[in-house]
Please model this.
Amino acid sequence: MHARITGTGSYLPPTALTNNDLVARGVDTSDEWIVERTGIRCRHIADAGQQASDLALAASLNAIGTAGISAEKIDLIILATSTPDYIFPSTACLLQSKLGISGAAAFDIQAVCSGFAYALTMAEKFIQSGSHRCALVVGTEVFSRILDWNDRGTCVLFGDGAGAVILEASEEPGILASALHADGSQHGILEVPGNICGGKVVGQPFVKMDGPAVFKFAVKVLAEVAQEVLDRAGMSAAAIDWLIPHQANIRIIQSTAKKLGLPMGRVVTTVDRHGNTSAASIPLALDAAVRDGRIKRGDTLMLEGVGGGFTWGAVLLKF
Ligand code: UT7
Model:
């Protein structure tokens, strides 16, 4: 049994924040610096009343619509987020309720910016085992809620959004190969080292990052994991029609493409207009390129992510 994506969807909150808007708000930065060092020009920010599950709902309804299924068919919901609505229940359960369905298994996974690669890989394992047939896989984030707007090294990088796919049991492939990894000893280079205890915030509930260390780590593991997955599938990089990497920094994306020998014309990039939306960035980019007609049925796609933990992973699939 194979697992195949039958629908994609995404959602961006309506409020867009440009680099110059950040400067106008008093962030000690410039449009020139952000564009040159990251490729980011704009990001979307959720309204105060919008939670991760609301963004997820809009993206999921899009994906359900393009798959042409009814929500009742979904028997598994895996949702990746680092910015859940609550401590519990899971955002996946809140999404299930907002979709008006019940009975399907539903849970969140936490792998930060690799979350979607982790969630998609996990959903495929459920389908391959025969236990489930129709999964809703979501990446959703309101990262703006965990940014320190006085830290120019992080606050200019991130945005909010959600992306979703429907993954169904199929006779045709489908996901061809995948790989997931983590190295917890590297947790300190990208973390939100805070918690709630006795009703009080303990630690620092804001993103803390050693940018250059993360940059070096990302460039290394993204090239490695893409090659690992190609080897598992017995394919070469030349077979990839579209690379859809996590959207953190255009320089990381360019370096990964170069190492794989892929021209930038075969790489989907949304970092300029979405910023880094963590677990949402890959499905947002996937949906953008499906909707504008670049990605077609039968194309070979490489999805890959890297993020806090440290975690990283890649999924090679026939769309
Ligand atoms: O989702 C996965 C996690 N995220 C990533 O993958 C991000 C990985 N890292 C990066 O993308 C880059 O390291 C950054 C974009 C975060 C930083 O770029 P960089 O080229 O590594 O800059 P840097 O941190 O080495 O800082 C260079 C200079 C410093 O000034 P001095 O010390 O040279 O005077 C910083 O203070 O740039 C300064 N700087 C800024 N200047 C204007 C740092 N942030 C800003 C800013 N605006 N926003």
